TrEMBL record:
GO terms for molecular function: deoxyribodipyrimidine photo-lyase activity. Its EC number is 4.1.99.3. Its cofactor is FAD. It is an enzyme of class 4 (lyase). This is Cryptochrome/photolyase family protein. The keyword Flavoprotein applies. Belongs to the DNA photolyase family. Residues 3-132 form the Photolyase/cryptochrome alpha/beta domain. Keywords: Chromophore, FAD, Flavoprotein, Lyase.
């Protein structure tokens, strides 16, 4: 009697270069691909609205691809530890495989499940698939974790290079008697009242085939303009691979080797390194989304929140052209150019004096590529409270940034055209005065008793 293998999929919604799937296929038994929507386990962060939209379509694409190869995708909802065990029982599965996760709550869930399943005689194995260098394998000379990017990346590049990606399987044979599955539509991942996802549908096509097509196009054409124009939001020179990596429609190994083979991807590969550094930091600091990495910033005197200022920022109604353009691009497409992300974040924190956690939560809800590491990591970097952070006194002047990176106003004209009219809106705050207020507040941080840094261990 065959004992099926379960592949528990998480942020790895692909067939190519999926080590957990390959391990299941190598058992030469029927394979059950299982996705669990876990919004109940302690410490697991619920997905934002844009992420839920992407997840729906990526799962639909993956289900179609599995069906083409003789398999099927099983969908279940609930606490992962319970739901996976139920699936093992329902399928009389002999093995469970997954690709590793690096958040604190996720690691606890996975470790507990691995122990309990093995105690029941089920084969369990996990694999490295979503990062190039697993966090515990990259250490300083003293054996601790890194808190500065440059030496971290040098250590990565001195290590054995990332493995070659695994080929896509031609067949994924499921069991003769499939186990029960939820209907994807019943999960209500798509917005309906109102349906605000029209811009996302026009901008994106989730799923592994589209991801691989974008990868080919980028390294065949756009990489030639990347180093020169990547900071210009209207240039279209960025890879737009971030949501593909976030959902695992592409593995970082696939992207890395495509870049190396192109022979033109030096700077781009270092951006992959920054992504690695974010996951390295999250692994060693699981509370990255809620606590300052540099503890002295706990003393920052955030003023009383002005809800009208926060809402103006969220809706792109601040009266500051580049900020408004970026926030409207985000709302419309679920995406924002990276340079503009830094500018809009700096404006919220250092001109509106609003806690970085408010902005991080908004991006979590509205970005299709927000993940548990990169989103809070980059917000803390801008705030000055994170690993290898920009100094707090570095305030991105949105007017100077627009002159430098959108000199002809193409980006602003696309997303906030009223700012180029004869009667543009007035800014809700004075940039110079609020910058000074932010620096004055930072003086209180410097005067606070030294408490050390979580990044230093």
């Amino acid at each position: 009697m065959p004992s099926p293998s379960i592949v528990w999929l998480r942020d790895d919604l692909r067939l190519a270069d999926n080590p957990a799937l390959r391990a299941a296929l190598d058992r030469d038994e029927p394979v059950i691909a299982l996705y669990v929507l876990d919004e109940e386990s302690d410490g697991v962060r619920a997905l934002g609205g844009a992420a839920r939209w992407w997840l729906h379509h990526s799962l639909a694409s993956l289900a179609d691809r599995l069906a083409e190869r003789g398999g099927s995708l099983v969908l279940r909802r609930g606490p992962a530890a319970r739901v996976v065990r139920e699936a093992v029982t329902d399928a009389s599965a002999g093995a469970v495989f997954w690709n590793r996760r690096y958040g604190g709550a996720e690691r606890r869930i996975d470790a507990g499940l691995k122990e309990s399943l093995r105690a029941d005689g089920v084969e369990v194995a996990s694999f490295a698939a979503s990062v190039l260098f697993e966090p515990w394998t990259v250490t300083t000379g003293s054996g601790s974790h890194f808190s500065v990017f440059s030496p971290f990346w040098r250590a990565c590049l001195a290590a054995p290079p990332p493995r070659a990606p695994l080929p896509e399987p031609r067949e994924v044979a499921g069991p003769k008697h499939p186990i029960a599955s939820d209907d994807l539509g019943d999960w209500n991942l798509l917005p309906t009242r109102p349906d605000w996802a029209g811009g996302l549908r026009e901008t994106w096509e989730p799923g592994e085939p589209a991801a691989r097509g974008r990868l080919r196009d980028f390294f065949a054409d756009d990489i030639g303009h990347y180093d020169r124009a990547r900071d210009e939001p209207a240039a279209g020179a960025t890879s737009q691979l971030s949501p593909r990596l976030r959902w695992g429609e592409l593995s970082p190994h696939t992207v890395w080797h495509a870049g190396v083979e192109s022979g033109r991807a030096g700077k781009f590969l270092s951006e992959l390194g920054w992504r690695e550094f974010a996951w390295h930091t999250l692994f060693h600091f699981p509370d990255l989304a809620t606590e300052n990495l540099r503890r002295e910033f706990d003393a920052f005197p955030w003023p009383r929140l002005k809800p009208t200022h926060l809402e103006a920022w969220q809706r792109g109604r601040t009266g500051v052209p580049l900020v408004d353009a970026g926030m409207r691009e985000l709302w419309e497409t679920g995406y924002m150019h990276n340079r503009v992300r830094m500018v809009t974040a700096s404006f919220l924190i250092k001109n509106l004096l609003i806690d970085w956690r408010r902005g991080e939560q908004w991006f979590w809800d509205t970005l299709v590529d927000a993940d548990a590491a990169n989103n809070p990591f980059n917000w803390q970097w801008v705030a000055g409270s994170g690993a290898d952070a920009a100094p707090y006194f570095r305030v991105f002047n949105p007017e100077l940034q627009a002159k430098k990176f959108d000199p002809d106003g193409h980006y602003i004209r696309q997303w906030a055209p009223e700012h180029l009219s004869e009667d543009p809106p007035e800014p809700i705050v004075n940039l110079g005065e609020t910058r000074k207020a932010a620096l004055d507040a930072y003086e209180e941080v410097k005067r606070a008793p030294r408490r050390g840094s979580r990044a230093e261990g």
